[in-house]
Amino acid sequence: MSDKILPPLDRDQLIMQAAALANHLARAGVQWMPRPNLDTVQTLKSRFEAASATSSVDNAASSVAQNARPPVVDSGGTPSGGAAAAPSPPPPTQPPPRRPALSPMLVGEAGKPYPGVSLPVAQRESELAALASEVAACQRCPQLVRCRTQTVFGEGNAAARVVFFGEGPGADEDRSGRPFVGKAGQLLTKMIQACKFSREEVYILNTVKCRPPGNRNPEPEEIANCRPYFEKQIELIRPEYIVCLGAVSGQALLDSKLSVGRLRGQFHPYFDSKVIVTYHPAYLLRNPAAKKAAWEDLQMMLRDAGLI
Ligand code: SF4
């Protein structure tokens, strides 16, 4: 075992690590950790900075007073430390107080926190199960209800760091009741594994829970009908990252009309999750040349998450 002693953390590092720990525990559903109130954090931050500035001024004043003191004269009338009184050195310049680097969640730069409290995993699972039962009985989209074999709610880890968000069930998913199990699903599984996750570690869901006939895109009204369901799923899981697969899910989540080409390559905020938009695996099967760009998108997320 190494007995190397790590250097002590400075103030900024301590604040960063405490914020990251609080963020992680809150996402994992630990309820003893109070959720930070943004107003209180800002007030404390201002007081902390004001105190630091005052302390710097006090130090500077004390330093000036020290240097302004008359030289001590020895019994022979000679200033101590030399034959002649040396000019006092200028007071040392104090560095300006450093601003603590707060995490994006605390300063709200990456979007508002999700509403309500982060639930423990078991409670998330039971709420997801109750929502799945509600979805199974949903009749909001008459055409989809007539065509579906069953609804496809979504599956995976209720405390996932990463959620993969697709468009809608295809024929295989409609038969099995599970998301992304056909050829496109197999490619998605490979993409998830390339990120060093298993399907069980992430959560997979679609924008609409019923198969559109002929694999057409869901209509805006159908997406609007299903929106409360996917929004509630994401709110319960509150992942760090949401990977939107294709334009339908990206535009629905971000309320945008931009293409995947315009949305990809950057993070978008959705509450305090970071959203990336990339190509749908079905598109990648038809256009293998786009796989490189999709992998770059996933790597951007992995780098941000500190996983590569
Ligand atoms: S797509 Fe969604 S809103 Fe429409 S019927 Fe299916 S579950 Fe209900």
From TrEMBL:
Family: Belongs to the uracil-DNA glycosylase (UDG) superfamily. Type 4 (UDGa) family.
Residue ranges annotated for the Uracil-DNA glycosylase-like domain, each copy included: 153-299
Comp. bias regions, Pro residues: 87-99
Origin superkingdom: Bacteria
Keywords: 4Fe-4S, DNA damage, DNA repair, Hydrolase, Iron, Iron-sulfur, Metal-binding
Composition skew (Low complexity), residue ranges: 75-86
Name of the protein described by the UniProt record: Type-4 uracil-DNA glycosylase
Organism the protein comes from: Novipirellula rosea
Biased composition (Polar residues): 55-66
Catalytic activity of the protein: Hydrolyzes single-stranded DNA or mismatched double-stranded DNA and polynucleotides, releasing free uracil
Record-linked Pfam families: UDG (PF03167)
SUPFAM superfamilies associated with the record: Uracil-DNA glycosylase-like (SSF52141)
Region Disordered, annotated ranges: 55-109
EC number: 3.2.2.27
Top EC class for this record: hydrolase
